Amino acid sequence: MTTQVLEQAKALRGQGRWAESAAVLKPIVAAQPTNWSAVYYYAMALLESGQPALAKGHFQRMIAAGKHRAEANYMLARCCMEMSEASEARQYFQVAHDLRPTPMTLRSLSNIDWMEGDLDRFRDRLRGARGPLSVFAYGLWIESEDYGAAEAAWQALAQDYRTSAEALTLRAQHLRQTGDRRGSLDAARQAQLSEPYDAGVIDAVAAGCLMCGDGQGALEAIAPLRQSQPDNQHWIAHETTALRLLGDLRFEHLVDMDRHVRVYDLPVPYGYKSLPEFNAALLQDLNTHYPFARHPLNQSLRGGSQTAQDLLAMEGRAVRAYIQALKGPIAAYLQDIGTAPGHPLTGRNSGGFRIRGCWSVRLKAGGHHVNHVHPEGWISSAYYVSVPETELSRAGWIKFGEPPFETDPALSPLKWVQPKPGMLVLFPSYLWHGTEPIGQGATRVTAPFDVVPA
Questions:
Q1: pLDDT digit string (tens) for 3-58?
Q2: Contact at 8 Å (CB) between 378 and 429?
Q3: How confident is the model at residue 439 (pLDDT cuts 50, 70, 90)?
Q4: How far apart are CA 12 and CA 21, in angstroms?
Q5: Contact indicator for 103, 328 with CB cutoff of 8 Å
Q6: pTM, to two decimals
Q7: Under a CB-based contact definition with an 8 Å cutoff, are residues 153 and 170 in contact?
Q8: What is the largest CA-CA distance in the chain?
Q9: What angle do CA 70, 74, 75 make, to 5 degrees?
Q10: What is the rounded distance in angstroms from the CA atom of residue 252 to the CA atom of residue 233?
């Protein structure tokens, strides 16, 4: 019976139904408190369903019993990150890394170094990476946008590593970000020779084709994954970009800016007299949840910071009111876009939805978001809590339709939206979006989220 329940919990995890997975495992953990496999996955489900404090106790119990020490320390560190306990998180990540160094532990430690602004430690950590981790460290140099250090790391890689598909895919990313279109595509094609079905390789090939003006080549590259992962928003984004380059009318079917990008005023949440009063309260709730001075690696954010804890798990009164108030505009959006079949946005619209991840971003002077999509989303958003006044044209505006790399010919944004406090913008997760930098001496706070079908 226990085996069947564990399999059921595993299936629920695979579907992202973490709260249900936790509910299935809870009776087993209560009856068998030393069934460490059940305890581990129960604690993981608690963490992923927004209950890091409860999960933390179970991981601590595992560590005290000497069970799954590397994994438990890593997950315990994640709990601490969710609870904005950065110094504790670093300690547990370090223990996990010392016990079993992996790309995940290197990323986690490097990310804390980076977000805390300890760049000397960040650089020393990456320079000290050895063996296969040296390839992963090369990728972190690229993410930090220190392209000189990244080039030095590439040149220092052992030849066996430099010819691996992983390293060549990173090389394609490096060259893409530094504007070497042909070199990026060539590196991606080399990686494809040994790993033709790897998603990262296919992404690099598609991006390289788009940069070199080969829309048809990009479509051919992503075709297997568009079929096997039809809801992955990243592949849809590549498809729309290729169709736009080709002048294919199917682009207009997939991207309808007027219908798909919609603006709503958030209803005044219950218990508040006005949106300005509510936004002031929400800002106060959020201000204690930015534990780091810098943006995370591998995120679209530049020049700002982000909450470590999911807003869905926060207890602040204004935060809870915000989550509740979102339901009306989301339902209105689903009504507005319709239910046309055969479309990656409207074809999944049955009227039901759930919010999957909600966070807050605080941008400082010059801060912005580079163009990106949300691969695991369906509908994405921007809610503006606090917006600076500016005299600069389009400073801080959100833009849509511009890829994160320069294509041939160049594709400019198709739409801009000027933000204001209390505004909620909803749009397909596969639509490239970013922001223009905000002005000097300014601060902007948003609370975006993703929506998936229920």
A1: 888 899 999 998 888 899 999 999 999 999 999 999 999 999 999 988 999 999 99
A2: yes
A3: confident
A4: 5
A5: no
A6: 0.93
A7: no
A8: 66
A9: 120
A10: 17
The torsion angles phi and psi of 182, rounded to 5 degrees, stand at -65, -40
Residue type, 347: G
Amino acid symbol at 184: S
d(CA 37, CA 45): 12
The C-alpha atoms of residue 269 and residue 267 are separated, in whole angstroms, by: 6
Q: Residue 441 pLDDT > 80, yes or no?
A: no
pLDDT in tens, 132-153: 999 999 999 999 999 999 999 9
Burial of 148: CB neighbours in 10 Å, binned 0-12, 13-18, 19+: exposed
Beta-sheet pairing, 262-265 with 423-428:
antiparallel
The one-letter code for the residue type at 201 is V
| Single-letter amino acid code for the residue at 92 | Y
Q: Which has the closest alpha carbon to 46: 75, 85, 87, 67?
A: 75
| Averaged pLDDT of the chain | 95
* Contact yes or no for 303/437 (Cβ under 8 A): yes
Structure tokens at 406: 């320069």
- Report pLDDT digits (tens) over 275-329: 999 999 999 999 988 888 889 998 899 999 999 888 998 889 999 999 999 999 9
pLDDT grade for 1, boundaries at 50, 70 and 90: low
pLDDT(391) > 70 = no
Residue indicated by tokens 């409207």: 346
Cis bond leading into 409, ω under 30°?
yes
Cα–Cα distance between 333 and 348 in angstroms, integer?
Answer: 13
Mean pLDDT of 110-124: 96
The beta strand positions in 392-435, using DSSP E, are: 398-400, 415-417, 423-428, 433-435
pLDDT surpassing 90 at residue 2: no
DSSP per residue over 332-352, as a string?
Answer: HHHHHH---TTSTTGGG-SS-
The tokens describing 185, both together, are 């595509």
- What are the φ/ψ torsions at residue 428 (nearest 5 degrees)? -65, 140
**Which tokens hold the place of 451?**
């929506």
**Helix, strand, coil share (%) of the chain residues, nearest 5:** 55, 15, 35
Is the separation of the CB atoms in 221 and 204 below 8 Å? no
The predicted-structure confidence for 62-89, as pLDDT tens digits, reads as follows 999 999 999 999 999 999 998 888 899 9
SS (H, E, C) 107-143: HHHHHHHHHCCCHHHHHHHHHCCCCHHHHHHHHHHHH
Residue 70 exposure: Cα atoms within 13 Å on the Cβ side: 8
Tokens 């199917």 belong to: 250
